């Protein structure tokens, strides 16, 4: 219990520091000095001979300032989270302890939940059946799709066979009428 009080004291000190820092950020803005100064310095850089080196230095300093501000923001947020946690802990500790009658009721509730009544078992069984029904429906749908795919494949094979027979018949008719068959494709040239 004493370590909790120590934690609360430390958090209250951090609260005072974070409140001051938050007040400063609210008044001046989180990035006000980091954004105004580089523009002035960049304007001065254009009047110098080595403009690029000067601009690089200004950008580096501005980036470092932004990084410091970001670190401060993160620290403030961490302090606020700790404050909220401490406040929640205090509210939990402030709750009065449960009376013996309350403890007996919670014990009875826990015993009732350990042995579920018949209605709950029936409900669980019904849910199990309702979960199995979509699985059966999806397997039936898959079987239906597979049957349709097999039928389409068989139709495609039959169409290909009839086309092959038709081409062979037309080639045989052309040969019977004295037409020469078409010349075969030339051999591919060998590459060296």
Describe this protein's structure.
- With 192 residues, the protein is mainly alpha-helical.
- Among the domains are: 88 residues; 44 residues.
- The protein has five helices and no strands.
- The longest helix has 59 residues.
- The model has no long low-confidence stretch (mean pLDDT 76).
- Keywords: Signal.
Amino-to-carboxy terminus distance: 90 Å
**Spans of 5+ residues with little confidence (pLDDT < 50)?**
none
SS-based class: mainly alpha
**How are helices and strands ordered from N to C?**
HHHHH
C-alpha geometry:
flat
Mean pLDDT level: 76
Classify the helix fraction into a percent range: over 70%
Number of helices: 5
Our Rg estimate from Cα atoms comes to: 42 Å
Count the E strands. 0
Largest sheet: none
Taken as a percent bin, the fraction of beta residues is under 5%
Describe what is shown at a glance.
Keywords: Signal. Helix content is 83%, strand content 0%.
Main attributes?
192 residues; single chain
Q: What does the secondary structure layout of this molecule look like, with pairings?
A:
Elements: H1 2-28, H2 32-45, H3 51-94, H4 100-114, H5 118-176
């Amino acid at each position: 219990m004493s370590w909790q009080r120590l934690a609360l004291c430390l958090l209250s000190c951090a609260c005072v520091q974070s409140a001051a820092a938050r007040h400063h950020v609210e008044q001046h803005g989180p990035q006000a000095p980091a954004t105004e100064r580089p523009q002035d310095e960049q304007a001065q850089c254009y009047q110098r001979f080595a403009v690029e080196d000067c601009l690089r230095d200004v950008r580096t300093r501005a980036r470092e300032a932004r990084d410091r501000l970001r670190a401060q923001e993160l620290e403030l947020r961490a302090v606020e989270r700790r404050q909220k946690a401490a406040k929640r802990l205090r509210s939990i500790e402030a709750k009065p302890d449960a009376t013996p009658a309350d403890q007996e009721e919670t014990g009875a509730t826990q015993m009732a939940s350990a042995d579920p009544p018949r209605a709950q078992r029936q409900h669980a069984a019904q849910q199990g059946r309702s979960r199995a029904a979509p699985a059966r429906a999806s397997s039936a749908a898959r079987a239906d799709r597979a049957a349709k795919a097999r039928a389409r494949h068989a139709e495609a094979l039959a169409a290909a066979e009839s086309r092959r027979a038709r081409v062979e018949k037309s080639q045989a008719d052309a040969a019977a009428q004295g037409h020469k068959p078409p010349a075969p494709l030339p051999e591919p040239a060998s590459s060296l």
